[in-house]
Amino acid sequence: MRYAETGFNLEVDLTRGNIERVATDPRDTELYLGGLGTNAKILWDRVPPEVDAFSPENLLIFGAGLLCGTPATGCNRTIVSTISPLTRLMAFSMMGGFWAPELKYAGYDKVILRGKSPDLVYLWINNDKVEIRDASHLQGKGAIETAELIKHELEEPRAQVAAIGLAGENRVYFASIEQGRSSASRGGIGAVMGDKGVKAIVVRGTTDINIAQPLEYIELCNEVMEYIKFRNENPIKWVEPVLSVLGSPQEMAIHDEKWHTTNFVWGNARTRRKDFWTEDVATKWMETLDSMRTRLISCYNCPMQCGATISVPGLPTYMMKCFSKLTYTMAAFSDLEFGLRIAQRATEYGLDGFSTPQVMAFALELLENGILTDKDFPEMPEDNEGRFYYLLDKIVNREGVGDILANGTYWAAKEIGKSAEAYAHNNIKKQEQLPLKLSMMNPIYFLMYCTGEKISITQIEGQFPQGPFPKREQREEFVKDWFQVPDEKFKQYFLDWELRGENSIPYYPTVEMCCDIVDWQERMHYIDDALGMCAGLSSFPMKPPYHIHNFPKFISSGAGIEMDEEKLTKAAKRYRTLVRAINIRRGMRKKDEKPPEDHWKHRFPDLEKDLLDTYYKYKGWNDEGIPTKESLNELGLDYVYEDFVKRGISMDSEDASSNDASAEKEKE
Amino acid sequence: MTGEKKKKTIKTIKINIDKCHGCRACEVICSAFHASPKYSSNNPARSRIRILRDPLRDIYVPVYAGEYTVAECAGRDKYIIDGKEYDECAFCRASCPSREEFKEPDSGLPLKCDMCEDEEEPLCVKWCPADALVYEEREEEVEEEVEQGELEIGLEVLVDKYGMQKLTNAIGRMSGKD
Ligand code: SF4
Ligand code: SF4
Ligand code: SF4
């Protein structure tokens, strides 16, 4: 018997309308775990680098995490993987909510879509009955609206629906997939779903998920619950309120937005408003949130209530989570009411709440600076908020200039020309980032921004405090019950970290320490993404209930795979390297690994070079960021090595210099 | 022994629908606890509590499985509470022929909340993070009755479905096989 996982994937060929239930190899689970790990393996095996995002050969994989559907609190992530139209690299976006456990109960670990349906369809998975159904009546419908219509039509209020809106149908490069109170937003995976002609995947399941060692497992679950209670009663001191608690940032619960509104930048990621948060604003925003937030809600089997139902007067109710609360507001220099209002439409359209507002602000900046002109925006309203609605509709419908903007700032700037590229200044690897402009380069974040394969900073950080605490006593108190560290040395790194002087940023933590810290943080995220664990209870906050010491036990007793810390660390490294290999094969190199140009005011080129070089070595990559032959062999990824050789991708350092030269050329 | 008065502990669970946030943790733990061996599997469809969850209408109703019923109700009322419309079925605890709730998904046999028999506190209460479920005990004088066991409830359903004769025949055949 297979434990925790079902042992079956659903393979759907949309071109031929063929559906197959395929048994998977348990050895793959041992090597790559589930979720992201085995998703990456499938993409490597079956999607060669010649395949574009919008090719029928591209796969769109919905993978439930290995432990989804078991009683483990907060384990509910669906990891959606494909080739991104935006970055042209591998995208792996996660969504919480209720979909992944339902898929497990229906008897599948993954849904793998290939080919393209000639007409718009939806997939209806009801235990072992699976059908492709006509969705022509759902064309142009909102993502939430679609879910409601389908549940009604199937008379299945308990079905879980992952759907795209009009943005996905029209292949907007930053289209999302929406599902209940969650969404998989980054990398434009909604566009790939639209390109495949799939409006929604609907799941309902009533079969069992088995546990290998039930009593051990439930004991672990109870411990986690106890610890969550403890942490709720003992928030971390000396940090921002959003960082002191568990859960994905509790944006729906908190009223105090001083930190975000005065530290993050407004408009097209340019303008700091240090004095924005006044008492008047605080009162008004509190009234707005309190009057429009109906209820705080959780994902499946989780107590944290990170999302909310939002009812804006005159608009249908929708669900919101995290930072989309502020992104539209800040891009448009407006207020919270506007933000909550426009997010309703944007959610129905199915759009990434990070990229979309930035693309719109970018368009207006181009207009202000004469690179685009009034002719590009016929009949655009005069007022700022009206313009945002106007742009939103133009982008989603790919009308006029909206057709260009729908490809994101990087590709739009290329197409517009006339130095528009200078305005697409907040990207990493072609994807829009959190609008942060800071003064001093931070070495830990520098590495995460540059080398993160997720290409989204918010999904790499966590575990290690974002800054030093002012007093030594505070730091001593913090490390006292910091049992989540994989090694005692991390406590010392933190104890010695000062706000000013020798042991302060950017030269402390030292380059070596930064490598350790970044690697630890990243490892935890990769483990979460394979197990289907919410980062909000694991890799994202400090002192979380799940950590490197209890995860192996969860895997052993839950999935019946013998596991210890070392083996788990190696597995995570294996599929992390595989994700990189996919991207390397698609042309990603060192030249792509840099933070947004003006992210930090004070830069340190020598230190940055040292950081990157040292980290590459630390990870077992050569000077170009390509995994070396030795590291591939050690991880059992010899097939990657062979493929690299066949394609003429060099893993020796000598060749890296010639690659450097080509990177230089591109700069010129 | 029926007809005699006896002190009995009545176990109740108070449900606060304003506090429920629809996480379904209660369904998870109930189904895991009732698996055999205990916790060896889980499947919310086998849970003896269900959450009627409709976030867009702000409806969250936890309901415990009650008695099995042969026939569905003839008419169903609508309730409007705090401006939200509920079907009578939303609050109904019966395992009834017209819906799939409170039935073993494979056999169709009815499920009934047993208050987690040997546990100190019902597990759904323990696992509800929002305190939407609150356990209460009170002593009451009751007429003693023979409790219907799960097996009997199951048999009753089979009798309803196939008739007593067919069932005894089947059991006869099966015992003859031994
Ligand atoms: S912590 Fe928040 S985001 Fe994570 S599973 Fe729980 S409710 Fe969902
Ligand atoms: S009291 Fe026990 S049996 Fe009844 S619903 Fe709750 S967990 Fe299930
Ligand atoms: S565990 Fe509590 S909050 Fe969660 S669905 Fe059940 S009753 Fe509601």
Describe the structure in your own words.
The complex is a heterodimer of chains A (668) and B (178). Chain A is of the alpha+beta class. Chain A has 26 helices and 20 strands. In chain A, strands 2-1-6-3-4-5 form a six-stranded mixed sheet, sandwiched between helices. In chain A, strands 8-7-12-9 form a four-stranded mixed sheet, sandwiched between helices. The longest helix of chain A is centred in the C-terminal third of the chain and has 21 residues. Chain B has 178 residues and is α+β, with helices and mostly antiparallel strands. Chain B folds into two domains: 137 residues, no CATH class; 32 residues. In chain B, strands 1-7 form a two-stranded antiparallel sheet. In chain B, α3 crosses α4. Chain B is globular. At the A-B interface, β13, α7 and β14 of A face α1 and β2 of B. β13 of chain A pairs antiparallel with β2 of chain B, so a sheet runs across the interface. The site of one iron/sulfur cluster has 12 residues of chain B, from α1 and α2.
Question: Which descriptors would you attach to this protein?
Answer:
heterodimer, A: 668 residues, alpha+beta, Aldehyde Ferredoxin Oxidoreductase,  A, domain 1, Aldehyde Ferredoxin Oxidoreductase Protein, subunit A, domain 2, Aldehyde Ferredoxin Oxidoreductase Protein, subunit A, domain 3, 3 domains, 6-stranded mixed beta sheet, 4-stranded mixed beta sheet, 26 helices, globular, disordered C terminus, B: 178 residues, 2 domains, two-stranded antiparallel sheet, 7 strands, 23% helix, 25% strand, binds iron/sulfur cluster, 4 iron, 4 sulfur cluster binding (chain A), 4Fe-4S (chain A), oxidoreductase activity, acting on the aldehyde or oxo group of donors, iron-sulfur protein as acceptor (chain A), oxidoreductase (chain A), metal ion binding (chain A)
